[in-house]
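Encode chain A's predicted structure.
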Amino acid sequence: MSKILPSFKIFPLIASVAFTFKVQAGGIFLYELGTDDVGLAAAGYSARAQDPSTIYTNPAGMTRLKGRQLLLGAEVYYEDIELTISNANEGTDNGGNPVDIFAGGSIFYSHSINDAFKSGLGIYGNFGSLLRYHGDWAGRYSAVKGTLIGTSIQPTLAYRFNNGLSIGGGPIFMYGILRSKTRVNNSPFQIIDFADGEISLSDKEWGYGANLGVLFEFNECTRIGLDYTSQIKLNFSPNAEFTNLNPILNALLTNRGLVNAEVDIGIKVPQTWMGSIFHQMTERWAILASGGWQEWSKFGQVDVGIDSTNPVSITVDRHYKNTWHAAIGLQHQYTSNILLNAGVGYDSRLQDTTNIPVSLPVNSAWRFGVGTKFNAMKCLDLGAAFEYIYGGDLHTNSHGPVKGDLIGVYESVAVYFLSFNAVFKYN
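Encoded structure for chain A:
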């Protein structure tokens, strides 16, 4: 087995399929959940605690919420990303825009057991995205279609002590979905012309972790928060489904037990830290700031195993970098019932800038957000926000006898978020 696979490049192909999905700048965690954090570019993330979305950003912040509150958030985003090819030997199709339009949302509910003790539940999709290139594009042997989505359910408790300290936390139950398709190059195994083959992977799996937070209020004007989310392991086990393989290649893979073999893919959703501060400077103006860290180096170390007649297991290391985040924002109480938000954030680069793979066209990014909250009536707040993410130019420069040469640049990568939310308040 170990002698056959390097020649056919099949095991590395199966391993690389696990990475065929789009990654948001700074990782594939989304700060954007259809809440006011979109308009703040995540400034004050774990200290703001102004609505039930604090269940996710800092569970301890629930102690600041009165009565029962329900937040419904929705958003759409569009990504402008398209490869300009300067050299390729597998065609001239640039794959089109692989992300286009995507929608998401969240639900958060908080309940006051008493003035100090709170409970809540969050349902949100904060992890993953999708990638869809044209089927016959120049980089089809590296990526065609990919989806990796994690939707989480988080029951939460929080308690406030008399000295201004609050603690909170709860388990995270993440439902992960993995789907991927990549073309297989039949040409090394054929005498006559034969169309591309394809390998597909598809599976769903549960993973488990925790979200813990601390909030300290110095006074009515100033508070700081710290939030930690643990690593979550998603152990996918899809079958490797090959189609339209060259007969010679199909026979060799069948003899090795690789056709329809179960592929074990262990993906580690990173642990994260986020610290924030909120300060009410005047009656109308407040300043917010955040700093965070995400452990993407372990996410890049994917455990891949094949359950076949000759089992093989390896760890594929993409050498991702741990990322850091910083943001600063302002809130302005424009009128008694209109609050304005604005923020700027930055996420550091995830990978080496010299060669960005087409399966992960992302790196560092700037976030610019604006938004508003309107108190429509005593029991209802309505929010809207817009965010622009600038990812810069992403250069790709890949070479190989099986995947082919592909040199080009994704110019001025940009993402646009538009979000809406409603907060219902009950005594």
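Residues 4-426 form a domain with the Porin fold (CATH 2.40.160.60).
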